[in-house]
UniProtKB/TrEMBL annotation:
Domain RsdA/BaiN/AoA(So)-like Rossmann fold-like: 5-387
Organism: Marivita geojedonensis
Cofactor: FAD
PANTHER family attached to this UniProt entry: OS12G0638800 PROTEIN (PTHR42887)
Keywords on record: FAD, Flavoprotein, Signal
Residues spanning the signal sequence: 1-21
Residue span, RsdA/BaiN/AoA(So)-like insert domain: 188-334
Protein name: Membrane protein
Length: 389
């Protein structure tokens, strides 16, 4: 059997690419359904893009690589597609756009676009062998116990990263890229909760509060969530992409609040009030109780000297913690790192060394912030490859 293009992976990037790659395109996936991560994303509503998409909100060894694809298929282009399919959407917060109803609407939209473009989809299909003779790729595909030999002029690697192996994530794209001489940068789980030993925050599990979380010079102002195993919530998921084992993180528990002013005025007005009671006006009470085992919070507000107030404020603005690890690929939203962009053409996503080999989506060393950026990269890189094919 011969096709013009074989796409490995019917996820966000693979389906988007298929919708633009023209006829004679076959997409294969080992899963039972396409776009499974789209289906479960955004709590079932899919945070499909972000209005503030900008190259600065992506990580990768080459900070310029993703600019071209993102500028040629933008968040507004994707939104236009969503509108054309009459999918109702809303902005939740910070430019994050979600479906009003169901994430499966996005999967259906992509299936419809693929069908219109004449692309075929084979599910529960595995790649058993792959070779390249300099002009064409030959793939051995296994489907329903049968083997098919397929010859394709173009091969697109769109099998994603390593996050959530339970959902079928594999390192296939990395393996194939390596087979064709492409380097793989160090990979690690990102957008992932950070863990601590001794169930350090178990007693305040479920407590959430706005913070500025910072590590290695990058900070995010959002909420932190204390859990049985450690820290989660958007602020921590965001900094997890900038954190490496052994690094500490700093948490400002008082964003936009001047504790020195409020404690000094409480000292005048309510001197007999406990320090913990005064703090519970600005922080969740359970968190204050937890902090009192680390910080000297005993006594009355009236007894606080200016120096102690300043110290207390400083400690709460720079709460320094060293996570022991992260929840890992089991729960990570994405994989940081991947196929090195060094030998990939940023306009077409084609290999500079193997003509006809394309690499797109999460498999590539481009990782977005939390908030719809990773899907936008999947759409933009998928369209770049599809148009080039
Ligand atoms: P993706 O993982 O989507 O697709 C890869 C496909 O390849 C899958 O269909 C898989 O079955 C297939 N495959 C893998 N190995 C194979 C093999 N060996 N043989 C055959 N097929 C194989 N992002 C965002 O922007 N907004 C959001 O709301 C969310 N929410 C979210 C929630 C959760 C729980 C997760 C895990 C992730 C998110 N993300 C997200 C991230 C987003 O899902 C991710 O960045 C994109 O799905 C990446 O798209 P790709 O197409 O590159 O990979």
């Amino acid at each position: 059997m011969q096709v013009n293009t074989l796409i490995l992976g019917a996820g966000a990037a693979g389906m988007m690419c298929a919708a633009h790659a023209g006829p004679s395109t076959l997409v294969i996936d080992h899963a039972k359904a396409p776009g499974e991560k789209i289906r479960i994303s955004g709590g079932g509503r899919c945070n499909f893009t972000n209005m503030h998409t900008d190259p600065s909100r992506f990580l990768g060894q080459n900070p310029h690589f993703h600019k071209s694809a993102l500028s040629r298929y933008t968040q507004w282009d994707f939104l236009d597609l969503v509108d054309r399919h009459r999918i109702a959407w809303h902005e939740k917060t910070l430019g994050q756009l979600f479906c009003d109803d169901k994430a499966t609407q996005i999967v259906e939209m992509l299936r419809a676009e693929m069908a219109q473009a004449g692309a075929e989809l084979w599910l529960q299909t595995a790649l058993a062998d792959l070779s390249h003779d300099g002009t064409r790729f030959t793939a051995q595909l296994e489907r329903e116990g049968k083997r098919t030999t397929l010859s394709a002029r173009n091969l697109v690697l769109a099998t994603g990263g390593k996050s959530i192996p339970k959902m079928g994530a594999t390192g296939l794209a990395y393996e194939i890229a390596r087979q064709f001489g492409h380097a793989i940068t160090d990979t690690r789980p990102a957008l992932v909760p950070l863990t601590f030993s001794y169930q350090r925050f178990a007693a305040i599990s479920g407590v959430s509060t706005p913070v500025i979380a910072e590590t290695n010079g990058t900070a995010f102002e959002e909420a932190v969530l204390f859990t049985h195993r450690g820290l989660s919530g958007p602020a921590v998921l965001q900094i997890s992409s900038y954190w490496k084992e052994g690094d500490s993180i700093s948490i400002n528990l008082l964003p936009g609040h001047d504790l020195t002013v409020s404690l000094k005025s409480a000292r005048q007005a309510h001197g007999k009030r406990n320090v913990t009671t005064a703090l519970a006006e600005v922080l969740p009470e359970r968190l204050v109780t937890h902090l009192s085992s680390d910080l000297p919070l005993g006594g009355n507000v009236g007894d606080l000297s200016d120096k102690r107030i300043d110290e207390l404020s400083d400690r709460l603005r720079h709460w320094t913690l060293t996570p022991t690890g992260s929840e890992g690929y089991r729960t990570a939203e994405v994989t940081l790192g991947g196929i090195s962009t060094d030998r990939i053409d940023s306009k077409t996503m084609m290999s500079r060394d193997v003509p006809g080999l394309y690499m797109i989506g999460e498999a590539v060393d481009v990782t977005g912030w939390l908030g719809g950026y990773n899907f936008q990269w999947a759409w933009s890189s998928g369209v770049a490859a599809g148009r080039a094919i």
